[in-house]
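Hello,

Our lab assistant flagged a job as stuck in the queue for most of the afternoon. It eventually completed. Since we weren't sure the result was trustworthy after the delay, we are filing this so someone can double-check. Below is the sequence as submitted and the structure that was eventually returned. Let us know if re-running is recommended.
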Amino acid sequence: MKKEIVVIGMSGGVDSSVAACLLKEEGYQVIGATMKLLEDEKTKEAIEDAKKICTILNIPHYIFDLTKEFKTIIIEDFIGSYKEGTTPNPCIVCNKHFKFGLFYKKAQELGATYIATGHYAKVKNNRLIMSDAKEKDQSYFLCQIDKEVLPNVLFPLNNFHSKDEIRALAKKYNLPVSEKKDSQEICFIPNDDYKSFLEKNNIKNKPGNIILKNGTILGKHNGLYKYTIGQRKGLNIAYKEPLYVLELDTENNNVIVGTNKELLKRELIATDINYLIDKDEFFKTKLYAKIRSRGSLEEIEKCQLDKKKNLIITFVKDLRAITPGQYIVFYNDKNECLGSGCIKK
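-- returned structure --
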């Protein structure tokens, strides 16, 4: 009897291409699909590359045109976040609404039991778990997906420990992508120049003051969107010791700066909580968390709900540059990803 249908997200890159090969070897009925999110040359090239791989593998290829939804849900939200003085993480939002949201619905329309991607992560017993390839682990970016989708998600690269292994497999399968470079930038921002992108999308250079917490004016800025929490470079101010961005005061249009010590905090408040396990189990578990994708796992001392069902988190030790708009992602001591929330303050 033939195995179930699986629709795999094909980007035209080495990870998704090898993942498709592995699924086919396992006997699944594999369908390739590429989400069209932007109207640009890079997207056209990705679609053509994905088509070529699907032709080589003799599997169908579909294009899901989601450009309108992407503009509203991702791009406009990204711009709005900077207007509010926060630093967004559009990849997390995209995974939630697109790769494991709209893509999943489209796959179901094609009769699929599963969806698959080239992400470096694991699903075991309906739990999201860190990849063995620690430096490539992407569980942080998957933290907001619906837990109800997890039983229907396959990560074919979950048993590999490095990107070199994946490239070697691409050569073995004679895929013309083995030397293709990984994309490191946000897909809708050319050359990773978010400041120019924002300026082209009506974010104005509104001059204001750079101040200390006590209100002392140290200099001028030319737009809050050019700064982020913890930034030191580019402040162009003179002071008796190094200063860093502590806060973006959108109400008064001020960049508030202070010492490195003032950047340290033990507590944060998180909104938009997504639980990947049962809530009761979550609050009974010894929790650890990351506050940025490349950050280390930090031990949590206390986790409690406020009246608005936001999470108030207290860490065992001070953390540096907790940034509103970024995500806190929760884990246990077994490297299972338990959920997440958007950092409010």
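-- support follow-up --
The delay was a queue issue, not a problem with the job. The result is valid. The chain has a mean pLDDT of 94. Residues 5-190 form a domain with the Rossmann fold fold (CATH 3.40.50.620).
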